[in-house]
Structure to design on (444 residues):
């Protein structure tokens, strides 16, 4: 089939790959100038199926009272929300009240399968991107450690290896931890780690262009979607001044495809919407009036100090109290966290990012060059129940691959295979029902 994918983040690119492997002719349309330019650009890079949590859960209601990034694993809903954000919040509150552990276990199951798929891709395609293995959750006090361990006790039944460690055990794994910070202990999670999502996406794109029937077009917005007879028609708007960075001194993997003139309308047999809230009109044309909203997170990326760079940061670190993550990307250290609903958070930059600096100071105060920092705020498309939508839209031939929240990097490879299997009409290794049905989630 001729299949269009709207969106070139991690979800869109991995889906393009799986569909191309299945023999389809794939065209990727992206409004930005390159792949991984939105929510996939500079997130923390954490891959941890055992730590997956839907944003809607009973204890999240209490998070509303703690409007600070210091409680980065709690949702923050600013007071000046729009009507769409109010709708989202009402449905989120309902999901918190009516949710069960089954949603979390479904996420973990998809995350586990996705990690297996990602490892297979890395091995078979010989992908080389910055990554580390294992996750270490560290806590200053035993209460925080007990609460986190209680949340993780059920995941071992889902095949996740989780081990509680004392302070000495944590320091054996991560000898660079701040000796002046009290350390009650930690939790070692074997499955997962950290990886540079953007590097992974760029390499996968190049492989698909070279060896599969995948074409990429950037600076292209899809303005209208309709079915006409046996085909789906997409009306396009193409940016005329898209940048052409084809100079030979640039790394090929990090360039946008040179702009190509496209007709104002293209026809396909199927369309995959791997989009964010800016594509809500397209979703409505596909019969899916979804409460998809941006939930913002932040990262700060530092260069490692020369005298610290050789210390082995072997794991992704997670602060048990805040959920803030510290991950190593080659010779850089990235600190990330936060869940803020609605518009791009505004305010004093130093104040907004202060909680990230506080956690860095808590655990790795001498690791980073503070004067050499890249700060980033990214919007993760999120549905009120916190689960992605991976399945058919009401309009025949349109498929949905969206709403992955801040789990996109962990879920992407499995979600891509799950959707490709549905398009092919075959069963998958995991149950697609929790992610595929709009009706059961009240959005049909």
């Amino acid at each position: 089939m001729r299949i269009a994918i709207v969106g070139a983040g991690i979800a869109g690119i991995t889906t393009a790959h799986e569909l191309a492997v299945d023999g389809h002719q794939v065209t990727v349309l992206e409004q930005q100038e390159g792949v991984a330019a939105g929510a996939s650009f500079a997130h923390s890079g954490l891959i941890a199926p055992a730590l997956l949590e839907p944003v809607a859960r009973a204890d999240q209601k209490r998070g509303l009272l703690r409007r600070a990034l210091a409680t980065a694993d709690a949702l923050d809903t600013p007071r000046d929300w729009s009507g769409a954000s109010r709708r989202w919040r009402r449905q989120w509150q309902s999901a918190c009240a009516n949710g069960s552990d089954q949603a979390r276990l479904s996420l973990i199951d998809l995350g586990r399968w996705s990690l297996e798929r990602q490892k297979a891709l890395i091995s078979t395609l010989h992908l080389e991107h910055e990554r580390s293995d294992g996750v270490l959750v560290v806590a200053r006090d035993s209460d925080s450690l007990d609460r986190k361990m209680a949340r993780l006790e059920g995941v071992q039944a889902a095949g996740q290896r989780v081990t509680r460690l004392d302070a000495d055990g944590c320091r054996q794994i991560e000898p660079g931890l701040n000796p002046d910070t009290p350390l009650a202990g930690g939790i070692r999670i074997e499955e997962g780690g950290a990886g540079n999502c953007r590097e992974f996406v760029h390499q996968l794109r190049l492989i698909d262009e070279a060896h599969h029937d995948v074409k990429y077009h950037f600076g292209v917005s899809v303005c209208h979607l309709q079915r006409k007879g046996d085909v789906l028609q997409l009306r396009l708007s193409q940016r005329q001044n898209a940048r052409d960075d084809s100079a030979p001194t640039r790394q090929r993997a990090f360039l946008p495809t040179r702009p190509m003139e496209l007709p104002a309308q293209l026809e396909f047999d199927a369309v995959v919407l791997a989009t964010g809230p800016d594509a809500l009109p397209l979703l409505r044309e596909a019969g899916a009036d979804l409460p998809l909203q941006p939930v913002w997170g932040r990262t700060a990326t530092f260069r490692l100090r020369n005298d610290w760079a050789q210390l082995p940061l072997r794991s992704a670190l997670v602060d048990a109290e805040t959920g803030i993550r510290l991950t190593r990307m080659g010779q850089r250290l990235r600190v990330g966290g936060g869940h803020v609903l609605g518009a791009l958070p505004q305010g004093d930059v130093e104040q907004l990012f202060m909680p990230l600096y506080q956690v860095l100071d808590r655990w790795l105060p001498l690791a980073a060059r503070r004067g050499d920092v890249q700060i980033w705020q990214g919007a993760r498309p999120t549905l009120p129940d916190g689960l992605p939508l991976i399945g058919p839209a009401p309009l025949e031939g349109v498929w949905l691959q969206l709403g992955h929240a801040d789990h996109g990097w962990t879920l992407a490879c499995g979600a891509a295979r799950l959707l490709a299997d549905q398009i092919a009409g075959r069963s998958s290794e995991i149950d697609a029902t929790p992610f595929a049905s709009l009706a059961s989630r009240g959005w049909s």
